[in-house]
Design goal:
By secondary structure, the protein is α+β, with helices and mostly antiparallel strands. It folds into 2 domains: 4-63, Beta Barrel (OB fold (Dihydrolipoamide Acetyltransferase, E2P)); 66-202, DNA polymerase, domain 1 (Orthogonal Bundle), CATH 1.10.150.20. Helices cover 45% and strands 18% of the residues. It contains 10 helices and 5 strands. It has a 5-stranded mixed β-barrel. The protein starts with a strand and ends with a helix. Mean pLDDT is 84; it is low at 134-142 and 144-151.
Length: 203
Amino acid sequence: MIGKLKGIVDAVDEDHCIIDVGGVGYVAFCPARTLAALEAGTAATLFIETYVREDAIRLFGFASAAEREWFRLLQNVQGVGARVALSVLSTLSAADLSNAIALRDTAMVARSPGVGKKVAERIVSELKGKGPALAAGGGASGFAQELGEGAAPAPAADAVSALTNLGYPRDVAANAVAAAMKEAGEAADSARLIRLGLKALAG
């Protein structure tokens, strides 16, 4: 099984890239976010998930181990296969997906092409509290971890809603509230979280 590729980017296509490792070109299917960061002729490292089928061996490549773990976890949800999992990770970063699940924000997950409301609800419900500990790489983005069980308390959800109503994108608002909760603690009320969230956004 291949778990990691480290080499030179030979080519980048719409849904995959080719990584040259010692003269051998490996085709890896990747989320759009991962592909966007690759450039032909430059060095790259991809974390690989290997799928072995009777008629083919397919490699899926990710920018981080957390992204690969989310790819695995997403496919445990009914109705989510490799294609849909890649779509979610093309739309949301590992940290943003953690935040969306922690806040039970189905609308944020449903932004992914091919993900309807029911599938988004299943993703949020079934993956609550199951995100990889390294999903956000630490810091304010680790909202799911800060909340322990992954279920956002009402003040946090209210604060995100308030910031969204002020015109901030939901993912940006979620990250700001995550930072506010880290500073103020889980017992903080929505008004304090909003103030601290605005402070974080202003900074």
